[in-house]
Amino acid sequence: MTRSALVAQVRAELTMTLRRGESLMVTLAIPLGVLVFFSKLDATIPDGYDDPVDFLLPGVIALAVMSAAMVSLGIATGFERRYGVLKRLGATPLSRRGLVVAKTVTVLLLEVLQLGLIVAVGAALGWTPNAGALPAVAIVIIGTVAFAGIGMLLAGTLRAEATLALSNALFLMLLFLGGMAYPIDKLPAVLESLADVLPAAALSECLRGLLVPGFGFPIGSFVVLSVWAVGAPLLAVRRFRWEE
Fold first, then answer.
1. pLDDT per residue over 113-146, tens digit each?
2. Coil, helix or strand for 111?
3. Cβ atoms of 23 and 72 closer than 8 Å
4. DSSP state of 83
5. Which of 64, 77, 89, 100 is spaced 20 to 30 Å from 242 by Cα?
């Protein structure tokens, strides 16, 4: 794989993604809707937070990453594979690793817009940026790599319809178990234990540790997120098939 092939693929991926306006609207509208709606429901927010948005914003950022990097990317790639788009790429210098990297970089570029809007809405609701904002960017990158790996694994091994169904099912499950709009410690013990080893909760807890003063950075969650960020893309590259 050459650098020029990777750059060309990122450019092509970005162009195609921007043309899917309805997909962009979904990945933007759902996180923003969760942020605005749940910021008005103090009853769901745990004690110790000055304002509901302080708890919600990190979780909504995690939700946005999951939506863009797993659901939107996975479904789009699955149907590209279904319609033979990726089969033609298999004959070019672009490797499977290069495809995973290019699609992950594309998601990261789109997240600049996505997260900018979330932060702007959060600020309008009363959230105040702090010193943890810069290291939080690194956590977002790690989380994006993890979820893009999951999305590409689904898209590269399952039929398009199965990828569509499973991506949405995982989205709903991880939304519930991810501590994004509802505290993990309010879940039943069995579900809380399950949530602790999943990437959604790990990402939201890491972001909360950086963006909420006094919360404390959760090393365990960081380890879990890092394992997913290494394992999911490697497995996606190994198992990816260019065509169904």
1. 899 999 999 999 988 888 788 999 999 999 999 9
2. helix
3. yes
4. T
5. 64
User: pTM for this one?
Assistant: 0.91
Alpha-carbon distances of 24 from 10, 29, 115, rounded to whole Å: 17, 8, 13
- Domain extent, residue 190, equals 3-239
Q: How many other CB atoms sit within 10 Å of the CB of residue 203? A: 34
The structural domain count of the chain equals 1
* Residue type (1 letter), 35: L
Q: Is residue 113 situated within a structural domain?
A: yes
Closest C-alpha among 140, 139, 142 to residue 233: 142
User: Do the domain assignments include residue 17?
Assistant: yes
Report which DSSP code applies to 214: T
Residues 6+ apart with CB under 8 A from 134: none
Contact 69, 147 (CB under 8 A): yes
- 160 SS3 class: helix
Q: Which has the closest alpha carbon to 29: 114, 97, 92?
A: 114
